[in-house]
Amino acid sequence: MHKEETTTQNITNEATTAPKGKYSVLLYYIYSPIENPVEYRDIHHQYCIDNNLLGRIIVAPEGLNGTVSGLIEDCEKYMAWVKSDPRFAKVDFKVENHQTHAFTKLYVRIKKEIVHSELPVNPLEQTGKHLEPKEFREIIQNDPNVVLVDMRSNYEHSVGKFKGAITFDMENLRELPDHVKEIEHLKDKKIITYCTGGIKCEKASAYLLSQGFTDVYQLHGGIIKYGLEEGGENFDGKCYVFDNRLTTQVNTVNPEVISKCHVCGTTSDRMVNCANPDCNEHVAICEKCGWELEGACSVTCKENPRKRIYTGTGYYAKTTEGYKPEIALRTRKNTKHLHIVEDLGL
């Protein structure tokens, strides 16, 4: 057996034989108008506190976006609770198993958008045609003319992406208009957009349609759902996620590591946030270099006096100034006096 085949087999075995954990990690979003986001934010936050859930949730006038971790039974209660609200009855939860909490804190915040894009589109009015994971798998296997377009940030697709997919060197979705010209020659092709959980594609696919692309689809539920339901075939590398795992394995069929250590160049899919908070680059760093540089991406960053303590994970909980968890206990009579701005700092 070739070395490459051995690596693939080992990854597959690890993915299929790992013991089942007691926790779930949920990823979800839904575009559904919320007329009272401040009040609902408080109710939602308090529910998470009462049920030992951690994670990051965005409440906006246009809907909900969240990634949450907790004990399996607590997550099941949470999903049922969210869906019991008629506004969110159709929300699609992606559920992964995990050994522990995937977060160390809870943030439930109000923003103008559930994914910051500033794109002049409304997914409730127009968006690309949704492809379920099974349909997506059949198309990419049988249609040689289909074009996959990755709508994630550069550091995300650096550690994992679909075979043959077009990627953009962008930091966030706001930059999409600057990159559309790179695929203008494909306007008459069948375009399929994809992202981690599907949320970016709702607006990205709508934007492509507004720019004259004629046949636009999107992978419903994103990479995570495709991995859970169809084994993640032809997704190379790992999927970057926004919790303390940093990446998750989605391909159990034909996995392949595509990223290299930022420091020494050896093959590695071990993602790290640089320990220097002034840098905080998201890069792949192997275990050896990680410990030698104490979680930093360079000697310069290692010597920075503000460098965070490295524990071997390369994950650092985000510190959000102005965020006050106790605001969830605010009385409702006070909420009517608050005004929504881009980010209330709640």
From TrEMBL:
Residues 142-235 form the Rhodanese domain. Its EC number is 1.14.-.-. CDD domains: RHOD_YceA. It catalyses: uridine(34) in tRNA + AH2 + O2 = 5-hydroxyuridine(34) in tRNA + A + H2O. SUPFAM superfamilies: Rhodanese/Cell cycle control phosphatase. Catalyzes oxygen-dependent 5-hydroxyuridine (ho5U) modification at position 34 in tRNAs. This is tRNA uridine(34) hydroxylase. It comes from Emticicia soli.
